[in-house]
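tmp note - Tripartite tricarboxylate transporter TctA
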Amino acid sequence: MALEGLLEGFQVAFSWQGIIFVLIGVVTGTLIGMMPGLGPISAIAIMIPITYGMNPSIALVMMAGVYYGAVFGGSTSSILLNAPGISGTVATAFDGYPMAQRGEAGKALAIAAVSSFVGGTVSVVLLMLFAPALAQVAVSFGPAQYFALMLLGLTAISSLSDGSTVKALIAATVGFIVATIGIDGQTGTNRYTFGNPNLMEGIDFLVIALGLFALAEVCALILTRKDRSLSKQSDIGNLKLNKSDFKEMRGPMTRQSFLGFLLGVLPGAGATIASFIGYISEKRIAKKPDEFGKGSVKGLSAPETANNAATSGAFVPLLSLGIPGSGTTAVMLGAFLALGIQPGPLLIQDRPDVFWGIIASMYIGNVFLLILNLPLIPYIAKILKISRPMLIALVITFSIIGVYSISFSTFDLYLLLAFGVLGYLMRLFSFPAPPFILAFILGGMMEQSFRQAMTASGGSMTVFIQDPISIALLVVSILSLAFGFIKRDNKQTNSQQQDDETLSR
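out:
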């Protein structure tokens, strides 16, 4: 039955209509993903009216292409401009942008393209094999398990900073505070709004991401405009990856393809958490963790593999249960319903052409993305050859357009400026920005999961230690945090010993 359905899906995907519309989808998604502010959610929402009257299978195959094409394209602005357009590519900038700064932009884009292709392809195979079974695993995660999973993600704060752990924790605390701004969805209480109606809906992720990363970078570029040592940043370098690069990428691509897919299957986790956990887990097991954040091949390959693997994984709960796993798949659910298709347990029986057609089309889409992006890297990377004043103007313009297109609010533009100044000051005083953005992203979801778990248990904290999954996640979280402090203390002790030895000579 499954084999017949899969063959029917391949017939849809390999028809001339299927191939053309997959191509249109991935090209559109890649172009939109490169622009900060126009992520996959906006792209799919815009294309829903365009699909009216189309064959539902072909229309959904095209929109799936837009989705994973946008995630693929989002890495470009992160690497070249340090301006992540979507939350799933924030971790890509940690090592991708330092590589571009030292004249290896072409190599960074090639690593991102290959890693994305591997992560996407492996996850499609896993999606084809385990979609119905994994849907049952996904529903076994309740609020307590999700809270423990988010806590595990937060223990990475010490891993996301090379300097003071205290400063990283301060940055994370501020990120938590910012995440709580707005009306409390459960009690209706205003939190940190100070009577300002513009803050009642909270602060959008893009305002913070573009402020802390893109505008902070603009401030640094302006202040170092006379520094000639940065002239090599305009070189894209060699595009070819050598054996050493592939050797370094092999481990992260293998591990994060599976881990990213599994995290993508969990409703609410998605590409963002997958990319952060992918980055953190590779740094934890790396022999040279100090290279992370300074242009590490592993540090770039891991989040790119994980976020693309999670993109395919997010289709498991959507197709098998009718439950959207992220904001983007929620819009995809709307697209399904607009086309008269009801995702859920009966989809695989009632519309195998749609269920298997989407899965089969991902094989073609990933090949298209690789074929299209690798030859285009020299042209895409030419953005770095733009003169510095022009580049500064472009980053500011794209940031303003990206933020204003979300809310059409001038107040958000003031917030963008404020977070840009805050990002530069954090950089100036060595406060790391990644813990801030991680705490902001996870803060809202953690609070919601915590409240749901407490409500379900009648206020008893024992709900978090009643299930083996949540217990295991909590234990790993504690060990992970403790290991981070111990490792840092040992590093400081060794550094002190080396200094003493140097002075005694």
